[in-house]
Write a structure and sequence with these properties.
Elements lengths: L14 H25 L5 H47 L1 H13 L5 H12 L2 H12 L9 H26 L3 H27 L3 H26 L1
Helix pairs in contact: 1-2, 1-6, 1-7, 1-8, 2-3, 2-6, 3-4, 6-7, 7-8
């Protein structure tokens, strides 16, 4: 009797998806909150557009630089730990062999099976080093090209996200009308962004969409209320 094959569906969010999420989340939220706050305090959309564009450019640069430095830090940390493991394999060989054995004992291996596996791992230096980096330290080797790509991805996502709440103020001279359209467009964008993020990260799409909308809405409401209070 034929059986339906079991297909496992797993998703591991790539670094690129993570960078887009980081940039887009802040890009939608921060300029939206800024524009909403200014809408309650100024009488010209030109002021909102100027301040919004300045914030978007500054935010994209800051976020991109932060992504670059984070990726560089990961690479430098990996290289530093790799040098230390190399030294320990050369100078503390017995202890390092025992550390390999401890890893496999944690998986239930004992006796001859354990000795065979440990011998196979430690017979090749590069394989041994890679094993220690991954299973002892829990580190994966970073892509050396990731830092500039990460910076560009985060910055671009921030720019795209930031222009959505600001666009109505560029096209409409009436602040109340522009504010209404900005809230509508940004709300839809937050829902769409949250749903897409949920799809790629494997969590409930509706929950993710509502969370994104809630965060953006609270930020904008807080900024608008504060500006309205002091304005």
């Amino acid at each position: 009797m034929p059986t339906t094959p079991h297909v496992e569906k797993h998703f591991t969010a790539t670094e690129a998806v993570r960078d887009v999420v980081i940039g887009m989340a802040d890009g939608l939220t921060v300029p939206f909150a800024l524009a909403a706050g200014l809408a309650a305090a100024v009488s010209s959309t030109a002021v909102i557009v100027t301040a919004g564009l300045a914030e978007i450019v500054a935010g994209a640069i800051a976020m991109g630089l932060g992504g670059y430095l984070a990726a560089r830090t990961d690479a430098e940390h990996y290289a530093s730990e790799q040098r230390r493991e190399n030294w320990e394999i050369d100078h503390l060989r017995g202890r390092e062999v025992e550390e390999v054995a401890e890893v496999f004992r944690g998986y239930g291996l004992q006796g001859e099976a354990l000795a065979t596996v440990v011998g196979a791992i430690t017979a090749d230096r590069q394989r041994w080093l890679d094993f220690m980096m991954r299973f002892e330290l829990g580190l994966e080797e970073p892509d050396p090209k990731r830092a500039p790509i990460s910076a560009g991805t985060i910055a671009a996502a921030y720019l795209v996200g930031g222009l959505i709440p600001l666009a109505p103020y560029m096209l409409i001279s009436s602040i109340p009308d522009a504010f209404t359209y900005s809230v509508g467009f940004t709300g839809m964008a937050l829902l769409l962004f949250g749903g897409i993020k949920g799809h790629f990260t494997g969590i409930n799409k509706i929950k993710s969409a509502l969370q994104a909308l809630l965060v953006g809405g609270l930020a904008a409401a807080g900024a608008y209320s504060l500006a309205h209070l002091f304005g």
